[in-house]
Amino acid sequence: MADRNGWHFTNNGKFTVKSGYQVERTYPDRDRLPLFIGPTVDVIKAFCWKIRCPPKIKHFLWQFVSGSVAVKKNLQARGMQGDISCARCGADEESINHVFFECPPAIQLMKDQKMGAETQDTIPQSITGRWCFTDGSWKEEDMFSGQGWFSTLPGFEGLMGATNICTPKEKGGLGFRDFKNFNLALLAKQLWRLVQYPNSLLARELKGRYYRLSDPIEVSKASKPSYVWRSLMAAQTLLKKGIRKSIGTGDTTLVWADPWIPSTPARPAIPRRPSFNPALRVADLLDPISKDWQHERLRELVIPSDIPLIRSLRPTRSTRPPSYCWNLTKSGVYSVKSGYQLAMDSLDDPEPDKVLKPSITALQAKVWTLKTTKKIKHFIWQALSNCIPVCNALSDRHCGTDRCCPRCGSDEETINHLLFECPPSVQAWALADIPYSPGSFPSSSIYSNLDHVLWRASDRGIPETILAAVPWVLWYIWKARNDKTFNGKEITPLETTQLARAEAESWRLAQIIDEPAEEIDGDTRHAMATPPPRTGPVCYTDASWHKDDTYFGGGMVLLTEDGTTTFGSFASNRVLTPLHAEFQTLLWAMKSSLQLDHSSMTFETDCLQLVNLIEEDDEDKWPSLLAEFDEFHLIRSMFTFCSISFISRSLNIRADLLAKGARTRGFTFSHVNSQLPSWMAQSANLREFF
Fold first, then answer.
1. CB neighbours of residue 306 within 10 Å
2. What is residue 494's predicted lDDT score, i.e. its pLDDT?
3. Cβ count near 315 (within 10 Å)
4. Mean per-residue pLDDT of the chain
5. Where are the domains of the chain?
6. Alpha-carbon distance 186 to 138, whole Å?
7. Which CATH superfamily is domain 529-688 in?
8. DSSP 3-state assignment of 676?
């Protein structure tokens, strides 16, 4: 083979326009190209712009390497007069290298950050600031975690200790949004739309580029993806955690591979035996004619705990393209709220602590349920979290040296001392009619004291009218302390208590919503409890569902024009949500009406949501109810007239009792008769309700 020349500036030896342009720009004298032995300043400068950090820090690093940082030595070289000694340590000359690597505070900071020989490849945090280079992005660290330079000082515990302000309020946090997880939840919404609307313009464009033979849920890596696609793929893991594949007719769903079992999270079925057919489909578990589950085959192939979950699913009768449901909403549609909640829950450590410790999480969570203003709730939460700036805490944070109480002169002003042990505070609690309990209140623990006055005191017979003012007493004790500290004004305990009671009463009155009260006589009340007259037969339906029961129940009361009353009840395998139970009860009542030769019927239910979704008739908003919609459209086509309307629960008592009784019987059955069931004999007087 003849000798061939290779291009020196690419890895494969082939010439590229990009490398040629760089050589032309960087080395105009091409006859004397330098021989690189080590990294030059130009290489380091170029590397500065590739570091994953904010642009201002990239620019600062570039200035650092270029020697253009405005230290005193550089300022003097540019004609500015003045002292060039170091402002921090007093060294003779303040150069760039001295400021960042030779000055004693800089040396101590690098030691504290453990920047030894093993971490020479990391970027000094003294230069780059407090930024996290994770997941291909950067974010500023939480200022409340106390991880700044002052965290190395002895005795410093952080502004908010170990508390995460993004923890939900029901878990004892402040409930701030975590920007990263919230952004992932928003991106997952866009990815969900690609799944639900595959024929949209954007979905077709991305499909032709990234997932021609797959779908956005299953696609993995792509060649040279765009920024938009990389952003969508960042949310793919989150979407997979909460998504469930709809079984449809079962022809495209693999039993042992696809996540179709409605557990949390969704997963494939678990085989009963170690050997199984990996190509088994859900359609193979269905009766080919009735499309019901083959119970014997389920017991033969699947573990017993999965069988009730499988029976809660209904296959569709019409062929549909493969689709997904969101497992965390009853409609099956993804929501940003549920996605964000799933992302936050995934941050929790699934493994329990090996050492059980006393926790104040329950107390912090209860704070947000108090009947008071938001600022007082936040103040009490701060007291439980040790975040109130009393003298002792400020001294620990090097914000002062005096630890004495400004009101009584005690040696240390702690939060517990301020609110419960200081003599003015003790008098205020006595005037607020909170009794003194030796050994329990007041105690040396701030947690025990707050738990007593806010929650435990009611168990000891203290009236609610007295306890309602407790949050305001805590707040105005703090206000009185600040008036003494900053304004030199002395607020007596009596004034504190009176002001707290007045504010509590004002707030209580402000929460009362005035509604016009009209006098209703007996005839009007009887008319309100009586259903409007009907021109044709009417069927009242209701369902009874409980998450811990194996079965759900349904009931119906059918009234004809000639006064005949027909009662019906049935029980079936547990379904996913109460809405599924209401819908299936309506379908059962419609089929029962047809069997009784009623082709014109008005159905009434006390489930307003069911009435609304049937009126909208938008299946895209309810992917978890596709099978029910298919059967509803089929059965409704058999009626000459069929309407569904809402009725109040007070007018649907008999159907409700029938449904509850059917659920408690503990087995599947269906009963339709003109006689009231024997197990409803105790409620026979309700026959005259209508």
1. 19
2. 93
3. 21
4. 80
5. 17-129, 181-344, 394-510, 529-688
6. 18
7. Ribonuclease H-like superfamily/Ribonuclease H (3.30.420.10)
8. coil
